[in-house]
Design goal:
The complex is a heterodimer of chains A (141) and B (479). In chain A, strands 2-1-3-5-4 form a five-stranded mixed beta sheet, with helices on both faces. The relative contact order of chain A is 0.13. Chain A has three helices and five strands, in the order αβαββαββ. Chain B is an all-alpha fold and 479 residues long. Chain B folds into two domains: 334 residues, no CATH class; 134 residues, no CATH class. In chain B, strands 1-2 form a two-stranded antiparallel ribbon. In chain B, a hairpin with a 2-residue loop joins strand 1 and strand 2. The chains are: A alpha/beta (141), B mainly alpha (479).
Chain lengths: 141, 479
């Protein structure tokens, strides 16, 4: 049995190893806070779920390849862009065509029910369902 | 049983990868753990490639066909291995006591990764690009049947449809025993690539320098919150990092030992790198051009054909999926505006200054913060920057300086030349493509590009500091 180990024999090697050790210790202090934060979150939520606002919509959408996604909200706001991205992920492999009302099925994720119904009336669509997050799934006649 | 079925595809990939590596290095005394780390990445890549070709020929994801092909590959490699063992009169199983001790660093790395595992299972769906890009593509392949190609529709421009598919295909392979696209598979595949990358970093440095202190680098990775976040985000940057390091290690070993197996492996890893992400594609092309020069730079003993033929052979086959994807499937990049010709979004001096400023502030935030503390309060408004990297890049730069030009040794010169070329091209692209507002773009991408090249850079720095170290082996001193 022959192990060859090279200890830090030069000053640069020693300093580099020392720097790595110090960095690991300081990193660990910050990491511990992050772990504590997640531990507190986990008291409320097991894990972060993406796209829960659109759960159940797929039941209306058998064999649908493309559908519309309409919103009057400002898409420069990351919250609204995130919601659209979550919708796309949750409903994949259906392709969501942003703000295109020329599809048979359309999701309305509007700032209010009034805005959604106004747009639905314009294109003669009927609501198939609405969930507690204000998401409406509609079908054009 | 359900838990077993989540991890079984990864075990199958590891076995196939290990058989392949073992065959390549049958007569080479390569450490078992190093083989294992290389095998993990190779196996997952091979599984993704099998998935890709079956997707093309069958025009949909077919789990049964995929499993049959894997079974055939496994059997073929097993038979080949047994044949070669018998032909060369080698023992079937070789085990040395040091093999057991060599597992200890991996156990330490896995132990230190517990916080990462914990975080990864809370952020189970990863970061923004996981559900907008990578896992979205995986869902299209897994659930889309014949309509999987809808993911290349230009209306999905936010999901970067021009990006290659290695990571999504790995995740789809991970779902082969599942009826749903469960989150546990991408969580584990990201984690696996992190462990494989850190394991490869340690065992490759241990092989080259005989120094066990390389394990400190793994502890840095697993303790820095930013690197944890980038690991559990389920992005492809992790994968780029692994295959970049694996490529360089293989090419360096090919040159050092004049070994055609490593040359072949280097070509294969380059191909896998090209299929991982656009940045990986760029990196692989740069390395592809640098490698022939590298092999013969200050290496008069090298037989030119001995290294070049297996390298290009491996690269040719491993680049095939990338070539097929780019020619037949990848749409044009919807998020590109040529700043040199655009009248509405031209390149400006401010853009150029912002890019270089970001480079400095991203990597040297602690130096800036020290300056800010000294003068900030008396010189108007300055901003304290969050030290995301906690000074890691400052230590890297100091390490390079302390290596006293050994970082430019002919054994590893390919790494600094690659970094120079890659940085130049990426920087030029930041100037050229004026589609995105530059501040936003740098804020969202620069740290990920740095994350992908960090394992290679740390490998380079550590090797430079330990290179040509005289070591004591028993009572002999050798260099």
């Amino acid at each position: 049995m022959n192990f060859s180990r090279v200890k830090p024999r030069t000053v640069p090697q020693f300093l580099f190893c020392l720097a790595l050790i110090v960095l690991t210790i300081t990193n660990s202090v910050v990491l511990k806070e992050e772990i504590r934060r997640i531990y507190n979150y986990k008291k409320i939520l097991d894990f972060n779920v993406v796209g829960y606002q659109f759960a159940g919509i797929e039941a209306f959408l058998k064999d649908v390849e493309y559908m519309g996604y309409y919103t009057d909200k400002d898409m420069d706001d990351p919250k609204n862009a995130k919601l659209f991205a979550h919708a796309q992920f949750a409903l994949a492999p259906i392709v969501l065509d942003f703000n295109n009302l020329n599809h048979k099925y359309i999701i309305f994720a509007c700032s209010s029910d009034g805005v959604a119904h106004l747009e639905m009336n314009k294109i003669k669509a009927i609501a198939l369902g609405r969930n507690q997050f204000g998401i409406v799934i509609a079908q054009r006649q | 049983m359900k838990t077993l079925l989540i991890y079984l595809p990864f075990v199958i990939s590891l076995l196939i990868g290990y058989l392949f590596i073992h065959i390549l290095f049958l007569k080479h005394s390569l450490e078992r753990m190093l083989k294992l780390m290389l095998a993990g990445g190779l196996g997952l890549g091979l599984s993704a490639y099998i998935n890709f070709f079956s997707l093309i020929f069958l025009n949909r994801f077919q789990p049964t066909a995929l499993l049959i092909i894997h079974g055939i590959v496994f059997l073929a490699l097993s038979i080949l291995l047994l044949f070669l063992i018998k032909k060369n009169n080698l023992p079937l199983i070789t085990f040395q006591p040091k093999d057991a001790f060599n597992v200890i660093p991996l156990i330490l790395i896995i132990g230190a990764s517990v916080p990462l595992w914990y975080q990864a299972h809370f952020y189970a769906y990863g970061g923004w690009d996981a559900w907008q890009v990578w896992n979205l593509k995986a869902k299209f392949i897994f659930l889309g049947a014949e309509n999987w190609k809808n993911m290349f529709d230009p209306i999905l421009w936010r999901s970067s449809p021009h990006y290659p598919l290695l990571f999504p295909l790995v995740n789809v392979w991970g779902w082969v025993f599942q009826s749903e696209a469960i989150y546990k598979v991408p969580v584990f595949s990201s984690y696996a690539y992190t462990i494989l990358g850190l394991g490869l970093l340690y065992y490759s440095l241990k092989h080259l320098t005989q120094s066990v202190y390389a394990i400190l680098i793994a502890f840095i990775f697993l303790s820095l919150p930013l690197l944890n976040k980038l690991s559990y985000s389920q992005y492809s940057d992790n994968i780029v990092g692994f295959y970049l390091l694996a490529s360089f290690f293989s090419l360096i070993m090919a040159k050092t030992e004049n070994n055609k197996s490593f040359a072949l492996l280097g070509g294969i890893f380059l191909g896998l790198l090209s299929f991982s992400k656009s940045e990986g594609y760029l990196a692989s092309l740069v390395i592809l051009f640098l490698t022939p020069v590298f092999f013969f730079w200050k290496n008069k003993e090298a037989n030119k054909k001995r290294l070049l033929i297996p390298f290009f052979l491996g690269a040719f086959f491993a680049f095939l999926p990338t070539i097929i994807f780019e020619i037949f499937y990848s749409p044009n990049n919807q998020t590109f505006v040529n700043g040199l010709t655009s009248p509405t979004k031209p390149i400006t001096l401010n853009r150029i200054k912002t890019v270089f400023g970001f480079y400095f502030f991203e990597m040297c935030a602690p130096l800036w913060n020290a300056f800010y503390k000294m003068v900030g309060k008396t010189m108007g408004e300055f901003t304290y920057l969050e030290p995301k990297w906690n000074g890691l890049w400052v230590i890297v730069f100091i390490g390079l300086i302390m290596s006293r030009l050994k970082c430019l040794s002919s054994k590893i010169i390919i790494i600094p030349i690659f970094l120079l070329c890659y940085t130049g091209i990426v920087t030029f692209y930041y100037f050229l493509n004026t589609y995105f507002e530059i501040g936003w773009w740098l804020q969202n991408t620069l740290h990920r590009i740095l994350f992908a090249v960090l394992p290679t850079i740390l490998f380079w720095v550590y090797y430079s500091l330990w290179e040509s170290q005289k070591i004591s082996v028993g009572k002999k001193t050798v260099s």
